[in-house]
Amino acid sequence: MKQKTFFSRLLGLGCLFIQVGLFAQKEPVSFQDLSFWKANGKNNWQIAGQVSADLNKKEFMATQPGQGVLVNLPEPQNRANLISVKEYGDMDVEFDFMMASHSNSGFYLQGRYEVQLMDSWGVQNPSTGDCGGIYKRRKFIPQEYLYEGHAPRVNACLAPGLWQHMEISFQAPKFDAQGNKISSAKVLFIKLNGFILHENVELSGPTGGPISEKEVARGPIMIQGDHGAVAFKNLKIKDFDGQAASLSPFNYQVYYGKFKSPKDFIYKKPNASGSQAQLAWNASKNNDEFAAIYTANLNTPKAGKHNLELISAGNYTLQVNGQMIASDTLYSNRRKKNVEVDLPAGNSAIKITYYKADADMSPMLGFGIEGPNFRMVNFQHPSSTLILGNGPSDIILLDAAKPTLLRSFVDIQKNDTRKRLVHSVNVGNPAHLHYTYDLDNGAIAQIWKGDFLDTTPMWDNRGDGSSRPRGPVLSLGSSPLIVKNTDLEKAIDSMPESAGFKIGGYEVNEQELPTFEYEIWGSQVRDEIRVMENKYLQRTLSIKKPSSDASLKVVSAKSIQAMGNDLYAIDGQSYYIQAPQASIRSTATGQILVLPLAEKITYSILW
Q1: For residue 370, what are the contacts with CB-CB under 8 A and spacing of at least 6?
Q2: Which residues of 565-583 are buried (b: 16+ CB within 10 A; e: fewer)?
Q3: Cβ-count burial of 436 within 10 angstroms (0-12 exposed, 13-18 middle, 19+ buried)?
Q4: Distance of CA 529 to the CA centre of its chain
Q5: Which of 219, 220, 218, 221 lies closest to 232, judged by CA?
């Protein structure tokens, strides 16, 4: 069947650097007890060692004794929000959370701006009330009226009972000396399970259900506890409560010539000199065959470890107080260097030496610093980090408005190993659930949610034949699905010759959905993978003459936990396999989930 493909092209607009809280370490919140919190009512919160949720029971969550997990189990007469004792202004926060089925909660920044936590698994068009949404504001005129709010870009929510990861970078509102608000609060970004949901969203005022409608410079964290069962772990907070570093104007000296190292020009008389308020490579009148030395005084309000960042196209050295702390003698394009440096309070002398010989890349130079209690501050002129000339190529994206297939090379990552699949098919679905099928092993190598493929590496110029998923990937590895019983516990990563494996290709039905065919161990296999309820993948294998001395190795993992009702949680509740008649076996490196061969086998992957 002839297949149509739809590509969209996005213009490459140069190089933009946004770095928030990469260096500054977030402080973990202890979940050994509830001392970090205070409740505004009867306390329905507790500390547990482990939690689990049942996909088929609304708002149900089971707990096991221990420490490390914060759990809300609301009861009709016992529903309270949880409020931190400490208050925060600008902050970065990250945490893992688990939703019970049909459950609802919210994470309030400063107790006033709600990031929605919700069981939104399978929702196709998420709203402000879905997981990761910034909830609406409210007015009473005279009835309650909801307005504004910001829906997440994509639905990145996982299934109930799975651990999910959220990262939030928040900028508090600012006030003058008289207490008048001079700038609104802002969400710099929100990421859920690796997806960016929001960027640079201004919050004009508190959302619904705040502790107060009055905005403040510092306020507590509040977690909503009056709606449904929810659990948290690995909560980490970075409080940016300090004054940022400052930098004096840069003095510069410029030398013209094709230099291979600083010794070729540092003893020469400069061709030009002057001063710049901000760092900029264009102190030189040339785009190449020049060198420049920049000096300035960096003032850090607090002594301690700081992260200095330098980016350049060409070569550079970076010195602080006369000591060489970074250099790049390789001729590189847009290489970024981050180095941790102990700095005293007060002034430190900064010296940047930048030299560029050839015209095969556009000039670029940038410098920034991040401290123990302030965010990254960039000191370059905006034009100094823009790529001039031809710049990067247009990005070529493939969408899946209908079932879409693309053959390409694919690089997959499993643990610390990277592998290139040379015979693979990427299958996209309008439900935004996609997978890569490894034709050489009859394996689902990876799955992902969101948009389909970035085909730029495949089609730009001559290309390398590969494509990349446009969403965070859940790697399932790429090893044979059907293996001999004697080899079940062995780490077999490629198809053995003795398997007699033959690729039969695939056929496409009227809905343009593929069914893959192959032979292995004398059996003929038809492999059908379908999206179910816009939520998960169901796999059905039809096997003629199933071998009596082989089995189906569904998944190999570090840990597999039986949850009941044929449901298995994989690798610390990161995703589920639902497989009737499956069994768990131990191996030297972890565990495997095994199914006996039969003429028809069905199991599901839920995430």
Answers
A1: 19, 21, 22, 23, 24, 306, 307, 309, 376, 377
A2: eebbbbbebbbbbbbeebe
A3: buried
A4: 26
A5: 221
401-460: pLDDT as tens digits: 999 999 999 998 866 778 899 999 999 999 999 999 999 999 999 999 999 999 999 998
- 397, with CB counted inside 10 A (0-12, 13-18, 19+), is middle
Furthest-apart CA atoms within the chain: distance in Å = 84
Q: Which range has the worst mean pLDDT, 332-336, 425-429, 561-565? A: 332-336
| DSSP state string for 403-423 | -EEEEEEEEEEETTEEEEEEE
* Contact call for residues 239 and 107 (beta carbons, < 8 A): no
Residue 361 neighbours by CB under 8 Å, 6+ apart: 313, 314, 333, 334
For tokens 């007699």, name the residue: 500
Count of beta carbons in the 10 Å neighbourhood of residue 560: 21
Q: How far from 281 is each of 310, 352, 367, 528, CA to CA, in Å?
A: 12, 11, 11, 57
Closest CA to 112 of 203, 38, 197, 9: 203
Instruction: Report the distance separating Cα 524 and Cα 187, nearest Å.
Output: 54
The pTM (predicted TM-score) of the whole model is 0.83
Comparing CA positions, the residue from 22, 140, 172, 157 lying closest to residue 103 is 157
Phi, psi of 486 (to 5 degrees): -70, -15
11's tokens? 């213009």
* Neighbour order of strands in the sheet with 433-438: 404-414, 417-428, 433-438, 443-449, 473-475
Q: What is the pLDDT of residue 123?
A: 94
Is residue 472 a contact partner of residue 491, using CB atoms and an 8 Å limit?
no
Distance of CA 104 to the CA centre of its chain: 23
Chain segment 86-107, per-residue pLDDT in tens: 999 999 999 999 999 999 999 9
Asked if 234 and 163 touch (Cβ cutoff 8 Å), the reply is no
Host H or E run for residue 340: strand 323-343
Going by their DSSP bridges, the two strands 37-39 and 82-88 should be labelled as antiparallel
What span, in angstroms and rounded, lies between the C-alpha atoms of 345 and 360? Answer: 41
Q: How far apart are CA 173 and CA 203, in angstroms?
A: 9
Rg, the chain, Cα only: 28
